[in-house]
Amino acid sequence: MKLDQTTIEKLAEHLENCELNAQDTPKITDDHPDMDWEDAYRIQNEIKRRKLARGNRIIGLKAGLTSWAKMKQMGVTTPIYGFLSDTFALADGAQCKISELIHPKVEPEIVFVTKAVLKGPGCHIADVLAATDFVMAGIEVIDSRYRDFKFDLKSVVADNCSSSRFVLGSVARSLDGLDLRTLGVVMEKNGQIVSLGAGAAVLGHPAIAIAMLANHLGQYGEEIPAGSMILSGGITEAISVASGDAIHLRMQGLGSTSLRFI
Ligand code: 0L1
Ligand code: MG
Predict the structure, then answer these.
(1) Residue 239 placed within a domain
(2) Residue 68: its pLDDT value, please?
(3) What is the mean pLDDT of the segment spanning 207-224?
(4) Most exposed: 40, 110, 176, 201, by fewest CB within 10 Å?
(5) DSSP E strands: which ranges in 91-131?
(6) How far apart are the CA of 145 and the centre of ligand 1, in A?
(7) In Å, how far are 61, 113, 167, 204 from 213, measured between CA atoms?
(8) How many domains does the chain have?
(9) What residues line ligand 1, using a CB cutoff of 6 Å?
(10) What is the Cβ-side half-sphere exposure of residue 16, based on CA atoms within 13 angstroms?
């Protein structure tokens, strides 16, 4: 822990204002090169506190940079974690306003909904499979607040892992008879396939991303409550979108979901 509480609050206010006003900013580590991982999550938690104080609800969690494709795209080897506010949720097929965003990208994600508490340390894939109520198809819209995507991982964690919008499909499947490793994913932009993948792209099995999230929270004495909705991370690299683009995601056995950018 390198930053004092006043600096944490100032940086959280700045980053959240950038999110709310669709304004970009240089990465915060430029002015705070000594910031550590704990500081990064403290800033993210302060953004969460600000949203709760404003009456927003926290409706889910996310793991980011969990696929080999995304790790390669970002040049990293470890996942990161964030939260989802009710203000990020869009309805299936909804219009997503580009004017509210800076430079959005989309990524296909397997979404878990839990029916039992998951608590680390020591949480593993079997715990997650036993605690999963159902899974769904989801598209996450990420929108880093950092200018020209020039950032480092601590700056990204502070910025709530670029969280911005998401949409879920309408099919909820239990894991019975569903192998998430071989589950195929096809994402189209304006009718052209732009991403192809399978669930195993996320850490070999997307349930491992959820176990890692539980173990991450366990370090702070926190847990994943029963009934949580969790985005397990992009299966493919993120795809840039612009006004007029229509994104359609199909997931084998989980139906489809879509978004239109206006
Ligand atoms: O959801 C995620 O994978 C987080 C991505 C953070 C980095 C970025 O903005 O591309
Ligand atoms: Mg994501």
Answers:
(1) yes
(2) 78
(3) 96
(4) 176
(5) 95-96, 105-114
(6) 11
(7) 9, 14, 21, 15
(8) 1
(9) 62, 64-65, 70, 74, 140, 142, 144, 156, 161-162, 233-234, 238
(10) 19
Range of the domain at 201: 59-261
State which amino acid sits at residue 256: S
Which tokens go with 249?
Answer: 């995601």
Q: Global pTM?
A: 0.96
**Residue 25 belongs to some domain of the structure:** no
Residue 206 lies in a domain: yes
Three-class DSSP category at 95: strand
Return residues with CB closer than 5 A to ligand 2 (ion): 64, 140, 234
- Tens digit of pLDDT for each residue in 113-125? 999 999 999 999 9
Q: What are the tokens at 196?
A: 């192809």
CA of 233 to the centre of ligand 2 (A): 4
- Tell me what the pLDDT averaged over the chain comes to: 96
Q: Give the CATH number, domain containing residue 226.
A: 3.90.850.10
Residue 192 located in a structural domain = yes
